[in-house]
Amino acid sequence: MFPPDVTAARRTSSVALDTYRKSFALIPRSLADHIVYTCETDRLAQAYERLLGTLPITLPLPSGVAAALPRQADPTEMRISFLGCGRAEKGFHLLPEVISQVHRQRPNVQFVVQVVAPDKHNWDRVIHQLSQLESRLGEVVHLDHKPIIDDDWSAAICRSSLLLLP
Description:
Blueprint: H1 16-25, H2 29-32, E1 38-39, H3 42-52, E2 57-58, E3 79-82, H4 95-105, E4 110-114, H5 124-137, E5 141-144, H6 150-158, E6 162-163
Parallel strand pairs: 1-2, 3-4, 3-6, 4-5
Helix pairs in contact: 4-5
C-alpha cells in the first residue's frame, strides 16, 4: 500500500527500500513465479516492479459500495465529495483553492470533505482554511471530521454527483 521508500507513517525512510530489496532477494527462485503481488494503484505497481522484476497486479482496495446501489443524488444539485484520508498525493492541500474557484464560477455547487488526516499537525493550515470556507459559505461546504463507516461511506457516494479521487 505504500511506496517502497516510505514508512506506514508516510515518512521517507532511508532503510525501507533496502529492506524490501533484501526481503525479495530471500524468495527462492523456484517459488518466485508462484507468488502474486498486488498494489492498489498502477503507479505503485510500477514502483514495485523495479524491485520485484515482475509487475504486481493492480487490485484497488474495496470501498464496500455495491455496484447496484441506487444513486440518491438530487439531479438538480451538484455535490462534489472528497472522501478518505487527506494526503498530499490526493490533493488535500489543494481543496481550499479548488472549492473557492468552483464557488466563484458555480455558487450552488456543494462540497463534502472528509477531514481525516494521518498527520493533522501538518494539515492545520489547510484544515483551518476549509473550516473558514465552511463558516463563510454555509450549506455549500460540509466538513466531516470523523472516519466514515461502510454504511455511511456507501450513502455518501450515492449522494455525490462527483467524487474527487487521487
